Amino acid sequence: MLWINKKLRVLVLGGGPSVEHDVSLRTAQMIYENLARTMYEPRLATITKNGMWLIAPFLPLGEEEAVSKIKSVADVVFIALHGEYGEDGTVQRLFDKHGICYTGSRAHASTLGMNKLIARDRFRAFGLFVPQGFGFAYDTFERRRREIISLATWYFGFPLVVKPVDRGSSVGVSLVTIPARFERAIHDVFHVSQYAIVEKYIDGRELSCGVLEEKIGTIRALPPTEIVPKKNNFFDYDSKYSEGGADEITPARVPFVVAARVKETAVAAHRAIGCRGYSRIDCIWHPETDQLYVLEINTLPGLTQASILPKEAEAAGISFSQLLDRIIHSAI
Questions:
Q1: Which of its termini does the chain have fewer beta carbons within 10 Å around, N or C?
Q2: What is the pLDDT of residue 237?
Q3: Which CATH architecture has domain 112-129+204-331?
Q4: What is the pLDDT, as a whole number, of residue 239?
Q5: Which of 87, 104, 107 is nearest to 96 (CA)?
Q6: pLDDT for res 218
Q7: C-alpha pair distances (Å), 71 with each of 8, 11, 55
């Protein structure tokens, strides 16, 4: 390992221009506080909502200046960004261009994972099941509004799910139970994205499962988590980040064979997208049909105290500091 003879300089990068800016800051702070000082020299950095980079001692820098600064103060960047810019491959392409080492998936996999329509095709190509659905752009909806609404209603009925194609943390996601609320849900999506997706609602048990790369080519699935929303009737943004919004039960209360299938599915989804280091899938198990559907993959799962991945790692006997070690090791 690189850090046997000297401490590794780790720049923890949080914030970003997305609506998940504040959650990202909490992830970055959690990582910073839990990096073992015997092994690392950590430094915090923030990207503001308007795109300025603040690198300790937090002087505002433009993108090119920031890259130059990073190369002089860090051996590896721990990407703690969520949403667009951090999860869609943008910052990864920037770092690849300048030869900067960073944690998490490469640019191409990040782009694939962030786009739910493309990710759905990749999952199907790997033999995984996804809910029936279709996507459309804002300008298409404006031209063919009645046709799109009729098509979704005819094929899926109600309830159905409307969500952005390219956002994370359930931002802009709606569970539509009656026709009168369908068009409003679509417009809510277009407030945060130019692309929407409508999916058939799967009534089942929501499960999440993270994976870690133990070494190159070896991927380990963690114990799955069962998500039971309490604040709303599905795992939306408020349920994820509000106090008492949901119960997250690890290990999940499902039969052993189901948990094993969830873990196999998580590894397959990780490989399908080409992820690196770590990832987490969200899926639905329909007990009556015993079918497992992949909803999406998160290439940069949250690492706050309330996040699912650290809880799953703990259930597997991996402390938070050890989890960070493994993520960093997979990057270098």
A1: N
A2: 45
A3: 2-Layer Sandwich (3.30)
A4: 45
A5: 107
A6: 85
A7: 13, 10, 12
Nearest-10 crossing angle of helices 182-190, 145-156: 120
Written as one letter, the residue type at 52 is M
Q: Are 225 and 249 in contact (CB under 8 A)?
A: yes
Write down the pTM of the prediction: 0.89
List, for the chain, all residue ranges whose pLDDT scores fall below the cut of 70: 1-5, 168-170, 215-217, 231-245
| Rounded Cα distance, 287 and 91, in Å | 40
Phi, psi dihedral angles at 59 (to 5 degrees): -85, 135
The CATH class for the domain spanning 133-200 reads: alpha beta
Task: Tell me what pLDDT residue 197 has.
Answer: 95
- The reported pLDDT for the residue numbered 217 is 67
Tokens of 88: 């869609």
Ramachandran quadrant class, 327 (left: phi over 0; alpha: psi -120 to 50; beta: rest): alpha
| Strand bridging mode 40-47 / 8-15 | parallel
Per-residue tokens: 280: 């987490």
Alpha helices by DSSP H, 221-255: 237-241
Cα-Cα-Cα-Cα dihedral of 204, 205, 211, 217, to 10°?
A: -40
What is the domain partition of the chain in residue ranges?
8-102, 112-129+204-331, 133-200
Dist. CA 169–CA 23, nearest whole Å = 10
- 8-102: in CATH 3.40.50.20: yes
